[in-house]
Amino acid sequence: RAQSQRMPIEYMDLMRADGETATESRVGVLRLWVDITPIGDHSSGDIEVLKPQEFQVRVVIWRITNISVFKDFGDRNDVYVKGRFKYVDFWGKEVVKTEKTDTHKFANSEAYFNWRWTFSVRAPAQDCFLELTMMDEDRISHHDTIYYPLVYPMDQLLNVAYSNHRDGRRNLGVLQDTVVFDQYDPDSAVESCASKYCRCCWRRAHFAERRFAKMRMDVQILPMEEAVASPVETGAIMPPKDRLTISTAISHPERMLQIIIGSRNYWNLTYFSIFCFILILLLLITALGYFIINIGNMFGSNGNGTQTANTSSS
Fold first, then answer.
1. What percent of the chain has a predicted confidence (pLDDT) above 90?
2. Is residue 48 situated within a structural domain?
3. How far apart are CA 314 and CA 305, in angstroms?
4. Percent over 70 (pLDDT), the chain
5. Are both 277 and 159 inside the same structural domain?
């Protein structure tokens, strides 16, 4: 029979000592809870036995914004997201599954995916998390890590989903979340002149926060029977936007140039072109003025010479 208030579950390793070497080895996991009550106040009856339940975890990677760490020329990356899902059931069995999105090539500060992963898991579990890594795809060399991996914990969500299913309550629905990639190699980050030479700690911290990338994702945990009744496809949900295609290159050549050489290089080139245009225009105006002045002086000299000749003849 279930207790009126459910007790927190503790996990301990079962160890076996070797009689000859006196070394201990792990042989299992003990699940227990401890309850302290007055004498005679403890409820009688059977203790409820938890039954494992199959669940499906659905994760959708939507987009990443404010990417400020670049591994390729032109302040760009060929971005994809790698997910390493791991859970440990209450018997101590570990299950690991790795997934990845497709690659957003020539991504500058933003990358779009609209990509779904699904994972099967049994609850209750000792541990459950999803390790997310933003990667730069290279065809020749090894793939580079853009931002250092971050761990998205799911054990609490899984336990709540298990409790709701056990007690006949509705599932949690879709959790819309934003994760922040805030650890990176500082040598690879784009840094402005102000943040590079400013020595004020609070200002440098403020500039550092501007380089944090943010990823929009959805998480949903469903009992397996509900997941089977409402199946979904893994992979691309809908075509992502801002991907470089042939039609984009033809219809928006300036956009293609900005994607290939990078936004910062594109604007630097734009400003340099404007500066050169203004400089050439000023040189042309100066040359034209100089030419007009010389023409005026030449006609003035001819007029004075003619007048002097007429005076001499008289």
1. 38
2. no
3. 15
4. 74
5. no
